[in-house]
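Reopening this one. Same input as before:
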Amino acid sequence: MACDTGAKPIEKKEESSENQNIIENKKEENMSSSLVLRKVPEFKMEAYDAKSGHYTEVSSEDYKGKWHVVCFYPADFTFVCPTEIAAMNAKYNEFQELGVEILAVSTDTKFSHKRFVETEPLLKGLKLTIGADSTGAVSRAFGVMIEEEGIALRGRFLINPEGTVVAQEVQAPMVGRNVNEFLRQVRAWQHAEKTGEVCPAGWVPGKKTLPVNTDVEQMTGRVGDYITVEEIMS
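Same output, byte for byte:
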């Protein structure tokens, strides 16, 4: 299932009965439900630091105490993937201003990452670090590994400084994600955690929030007294 194929269901291979119980147990271990409100999985892997042009190693320890995003993509040298990486890179300075670190990850090796960055025109001037999850261990820990293909789904996880996953988006490979919408979510999450207020649909800085931290009883069943559909959609 690469970026140039349709969203076809993954065909499961028939297994012998003696292996079935082992496989079912393995599925439960690997196919986790949402990571939202859970601690981010610990990880360590080789990586390519495109900013310095050198190989390095990254781990979950590097991001402790920081807002950060872990973005999985299917593979180097595909088609949608470089557009997503380039889009994240185009907003790199805005993420930095928000104190957000970015880690891209695929199951390719660090050598593949280096060559990919050096040859793909869209990745000229890339500042991101790309993790090399060549064993698939990190993708499995985050629940995005496609075992039959040896690649990861498009999974994006936002983690707060306490190490809690506050948002995740996972989708099939054929459609790229929207970095502007993700930046909006980051700003909303940071505002909510800082103020205790909650952010309505589509919230951006300067728009109304819902002050449940001070007016929860008055707001119960009366949200429309605080905000209109027109304000939400504007």
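So the earlier flakiness isn't reproducible anymore. For the record, The radius of gyration is 20 Å.
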